[in-house]
Amino acid sequence: MNEVISLNPVFPFYTTLPILLVLAVLFIWIEIKKNHKFKTIRIVAVAVMLFALWGIISRPNISYETSTSVILLTRDYDKKQVDSVIEKLSNPAIYHLDDVKPYRKSVPVKGHQLAYIQEKLNYVIGNGIPLAVLDGLDTPNFVFISAPVSSGITNLHVDKPVVVNRESTVSGIINDPSVNKIVLKGPGSREDSVVNDKGTQTFTLSFRPKQEGNFLYTLSTFDREGNLREEKVPVTVEREEPLKILFIQHFPTFETQYLKQFLAKKNSIVLRNQLSKNIFRYEYVNHTNVVINKLTDKVLSGFDLLFIDTDSYKDLAGSEISALKQSLQEGLGVILLLNESPDKIRGIKTLLPEFAATKTDTAIFKLTGNKKITLPVWPLAPKQDDALNSITKSGTKVFSGYKYHGLGRVGFQLLQETYRTTLEGDSATYSLLWTELLEKVSRRKAKGYETIFKTSEPYYQDEPFYFDVIATDRPAILIDSIPVPLAEDLYIDNIWHGKAWGGKSGWHTLLVTNDSTEVPFYVHDAGSWEAWKSSRTWQENKAIASDTVEERTTEEKKPVSPLIFYLAFLISAGFLWFAPKL
Amino acid sequence: MSDSKLYIGQLKRKYVALKGGEVLLWSIAAASLVYGITNYFTDDVTLKALLTVLGGISVLMIRVIQLQLLHINDSRIISYINNRYAVLEESADLLLKPNNTLTLLQLIQKERVSARLMEIYPAIKIPNRLRQSLLLAVISIAITFGLTSFKLSTGNNLATDDEQHASKALPQQPLPANIKNIEIRIAPPAYMNQKDIVTSNPSLEIPEGSTVTWSIQFNDEIQDGWIVLTGDSIKMSKQKQYVTKKSFISSTFYQVVWRSENELKASDFYKIEITSDKAPEIAIHNLPQFNEFEYGNKLNLAVNSTIVDDYGLQNAYIIATVSKGSGESVKFREERLKFTSPKAIAGKSVQASTVIDLLKLGMEPGDELYFYVEALDNKVPSPNRARTETFFVLLQDTTKEEVSIEGGLGVDLMPEYFRSQRQIIIDSEKLLKEKRSISKQEFNSRSNELGYDQKVLRLKYGEFLGEEFESGIGPAESLPTEEDDHDHEEEDITKKYGHVHDTENEHNLVPEKKGETHSHSHNTKDGEADENPMNAFLHVHDDPEEATFFSQSIRAKLKAALTVMWDAELHLRLYDPEKSLPYQYKALKLLKEISNDSRIYVHKTGFDPPPIKEDKRLAGDLSEIKSSRDNKTLSKNASYPSIRKALVLTEALLSTKEMKITENDKALLLQAGTTLSSLALANPGQYLRALSLIKSINDNEVAPEKLRSSLQEIQKDLWKAFPKNTSSPTQPAHVVHALNQSFIKNLEASKNE
């Protein structure tokens, strides 16, 4: 605290000072002339009197800097932390949010009032400013001194999307040693459970929905005394989208016949075998009859996945190959079935990764669990390549994988006679060998409008959330049939930003009116998911907060009391009057 | 002086210890007896413990008082030894008296007696019955043990066990308010020999064929009452209570419906679950499925089987089929054999045994016996039957084995393509001999090559197995005569070109007998044809039963051979021919057996293509080949649409705060209920709660505060009703949108630059 003295003179300084100096010289000279006692004291008294007079006229002030910092106390703040911050600051103002217990003489403040003191806000102690309030501050700049993470489930993630009849998972972090067991219940019954033996740990629970739609699953936690706490987990189950698959082969094989059977339940398939040069045998499963004499862009655009054997590939005309490559660029998935080593086939090298010959023609590997799977395999191994994405592999040996070509992918399966696993009754292994490859390789669904929620769950009533829409033209968004304004991104084309507020608790729908895409979301009850909510608040505050903030001060002036000068004047003048009489 | 007092004291303590032990044993005996007896009559643990302790303590007290164990003093001991030992001259009491009270004479006498007591002290015996008491205790503990184990088999308690079991298995369901009392008597069918069960729980689990009698007492006067079953309802007659009865053979559920004040009312649904009378279980312990006998051994086959049934057995026997001859001339004869012990099959569990004398069955070398045990229980009207798997007995034909060759399998027809099992064995042995002289690399490579040969051989035999599966025995039967000719030809070719290794008679040490055997078989065939004119037109193989027997044994052997070959190959591939050799020998043995068993069989499975006309061959004429199309629709609509709709509805209702069920919602729930009720029939006891609740909601009988929990329960059952569907690949969930499309395009462009 630097103190500076400043003056607030009644008359201008330059006028009073010469007069006072003249008076001082005059009075001192008079006193020297007088032949009385106490000469020295009288001279001092004259000096004091004139100084007092100067003080009365020029009214001196002492000015100093004071702190104007504000400390905001939020939920779960620690008193010790407040004490140490106060010690550091000179006389800070302490506020507490109105749902937090006060600290000594702290002043209660409502969320919306924070905007008034935001510029002075220096320290936020505790769990942080709630999101709804934080959203209302323009330029928050504060140091966040956080409370320890609250106990309970502090994070939760549900797979997106959840597809009917597929195993999906709910994963999260629990930070509560008193919780013994976490159970996920579906609409029907218990789906999965996990024991919490570490206190703080990540957990994963799996479930397999049987019906599409919006469902509320329940996550129950049991503490060691057996008390139950339940929270809702909103799950949107999407339906399975069938694939359109085209098989082009020179001759039918067991492998493709079994693949056809495997895929036929849910997808539509066209299978073409060549009987003679221009004579084909067609099989259609869940598909209308079409004749495919030639591969063209138009034909291929009707399919998501093409299985083609290398013999047929070799026989493709130049125009067909270029149509195939064009379709690949546009997103078609192709799986090449090998009839011979691909090294010998011209033009195929660019599609597949480079292969090196290996010695073994038998693959012994494990997929899940301890069951060993033995299958014949092409004596080839793809060379290490950044563009190669492996799917089935054992150690460093890759048996199946794919490579990107534009938006499309070309996959390969080196394992042969995989249908053996089905014949042995192990259809689960067969499914594992093919499902991922097929799904990774096939054409992705093109969507004109994609909505991405920027604010992570959970959403609450009267709390804002932000979302982006990726669209080629201006999207129109309705949330529960109320239009939401969007702002286009300043730098990136095709991205629009939006902000909305959680309505009443329950399911709500975000509707993109351009193509009627519906995105459901769930607004939770106010008291639910406390720990998750506070951990999210904590994260948001942490993200905004600065490491250090300069202490905010203002200069303040304090006049020196004129009484001192009056008294000094009176005493010194009195003494001068009284001295000759002594 | 004091010594003698000490002795007396010791004697006293010994007396107390012995008598005390005796009394203790008595009380243990009594306590255990009391426990045994009370345990027989009651299951109450506290009562048993109380009575046991009481019994033990009372006997202890009585005996202690009787023997005055608490009041034993020295004088009693003194009087005892005075009486018992004359040498003490009745003066032992002097020992206890202080010297100053005694006269001189008494002192002298005391001195003498004291000395004598010291002399006789080791010989003094205290009378006791410790041994008898110990015996008593042991006997009573044994009795108690017997009583407790006997308790389990008392019929009395079994019934209570059953009732307990029933009450445990079925939670008591609440009755509607209008029904005051319900009494249900379940009478199992007579043959089960079980007591009637009376219960008040309307959910029933009853033995198959039981008759159920309902006696229902209503709170108010009612006009009519029915028991409504699925698709049927029976009216209750009014006696003291409303009574009706019916017998059940399949699981179902029911409702009590009554009319009071001209209004129809119904109870919840209750299940009737049928526990069916199971078929008997038969096990044969002492026999493997395949048995081989050498002719000349003791040809007796002991069959010991355990037959168990839940309610009782009626009969059991062995069905034995003897197959004689081989190839085309095979003959079958079936016999029913009775068990020798016990004479008559009855009861719930029977250890039945008999000895099959193969000679008595008329078996000769080379013949085979197939048999199985069949048992019938006492169910009426038609008993449950059960049978074991078929057991095979082969009487080895050693003479035939000597002359057999592998040629019959058709495998040796092409010796240049692959090596025979014998050749692989010879090569393996050779390789092992040379192991030291050759490099490791060469050893490994040769072992691997042998492994490859083994694989080729296995695949070749595997084809036989495969063909056998696909084409069966049928097609080849149409050309029996041609095949016979073929048979001759092939054998000739083998002899001419094949080098026969795999026979015992490899170096022609014994003259070949094949021709003889063959002609012999022809003879018998002719002979039989004479005997029975039908034989000319009959193919014995046509009988599916017999065909199965025949193919099964060979198929099993062929499979076994392939498995062994796998192992042999494995060890060869692992560069370990030594370990592989035992498997190779085993494979060889099995192959020989197969070739002996089934020469005809193998030839019959061979494919004879129809002759192709020479002028059509390789003409390149494709005019008759046309493009063809095959169209199938395999995708199914989602199962149980009404349940799916109802499930979405319940979820939507449950997620709202204030539920309002409209008439449309009710209709949807009712539709789902209809589907659910058909499922409930298939799975008795399930979904009943949901059905009752749907009905209640439809009738507006559910209180608003209970609506949420009711809907939750309905939803639970609806969800349960879905079958678990497997997943198959579908379109990936990720999407392509404008932004990542242009991103990838630009990426590709930059890659090409």
From TrEMBL, chain A:
It comes from the Bacteria. Keywords: Membrane, Transmembrane, Transmembrane helix. The chain crosses the membrane at residues 12-29, 41-57, 563-579. This is VWA domain-containing protein. It comes from Chryseosolibacter indicus.
From TrEMBL, chain B:
Residues 471-491, 509-530 are annotated as: Disordered. The keyword Cytoplasm does not apply. Residues 509-527 have a biased composition (Basic and acidic residues). The chain crosses the membrane at residues 21-41, 47-65, 134-152. Keywords: Membrane, Transmembrane, Transmembrane helix. The keyword Membrane applies. Residues 480-491 have a biased composition (Acidic residues). This is Tryptophan-rich sensory protein. It comes from Chryseosolibacter indicus. The lineage of its organism: Bacteria, Pseudomonadati, Bacteroidota, Cytophagia, Cytophagales.
